[in-house]
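Hey,

Quick one before I head out. I ran the complex with pyridoxal-5'-phosphate overnight. Inputs first:
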Amino acid sequence: MHLLDNPIRSEELLVKTFDIKHRFYASSSEPLTHKELIEFARENGDDYLINLYNDHSLGYAENGGSEDLRQVIATLYDEKISADNIVIFPGGQTGMTITTLAMLHSGDHAIIVTPSYQSLEEGVKLAGGKVTRVPLTPNDKWQVDVEAIKKAIQKNTRYLVFNDPHNPSGSLMREDIKRELVKIAEANDILILSDEVYRLLEFDDSQRSASVAELTKNGLALATMAKPWGAGGTCVGWVVCQDNTIIESLRKAQHMFGVCFSRAGEIQAMMAIRATKQIVGRNLQIIRDNLELLDAFFHEYEEWFEWIRPEASGTGFVKFKGPITADDLAKQLLDVGILVFPSYIFDCDEDLKQYFRIGFSRRTMPAALNAFKKFVDENSENWRQYK
Ligand SMILES: Cc1ncc(COP(=O)(O)O)c(C=O)c1O
């Protein structure tokens, strides 16, 4: 497969809509500013990081990510994870793709839980892998069907890919299911690529399950500054794994694609992670406030929408009950300056054609919801005629 055979579906839409008024699809947290970051660092007594930032060299940073950053990241995991178990990548997307290219060989088989972030699957195809999709459904609140995973295993299955907390639904995988998948992977010599970029954004802390990287040596966990911290501009993502041979391979693979890390971004990431309580706490409050508005809206408009309340992150997958598909609905919304991500972005099967993703992690969401409400009010009469 050639790199550009399957362009990323959301990319095309996002380029066209860079200046759109209402980003009702957005998945990353409220963007953090450098000024706020410095204030948090001062509050936390991290003046050494402010000095490091002001004095840092613009030469090359350490390949695979500087040790000080990897040490700070390790504090987000349990004692099995140290700086040596982490490889830094320029963002989550690069991390997932390079990891997959490094782990798979042509002809290897991968099982991917869908709907999913497109690059999780494209990486496998680019590596020459064969894909079996195991779809989630709203019937059991987007939980993985363990029996379907077992059935999908072939002699050459090397990789199991899932995303938890899940984009687009905002659901959390039940802990017993996660542990069952780990057992299956260990018994069948399968690596798990667990996209955990929305971890730390669970609405109820007690529902956060262990990272796959903590649970098994077969686990590779992906994270990014873009989501919980709203700091995608630092261009820092990472992969965590207990197995040092795998870490060594990832470091080598990462080196092939980029040796030019941003030390400024690394230092900003350290400041942000050390201020996780303040930053993620603030971002979760924005999410909770927006959720209240959404709960009220979907209750009032249940004639048109089915709302399975998310449990984590800032996205939800909503069912449209009107007479057109979610793809057509999204096209009409675009005409009035509102961007949502409809089912085609996630290449959904027929049974999810009425679904679209909304994002509610930004302070701008209430204005987007008002515009959306106006659109629904203006179209309801017409939809009723065709129902
Ligand atoms: C599930 C998931 N994984 C990975 C990424 C990519 O992360 P990054 O923006 O750091 O490249 C995203 C971004 O939307 C995502 O939703």
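The chain has a mean pLDDT of 96.

Talk tomorrow,
K.
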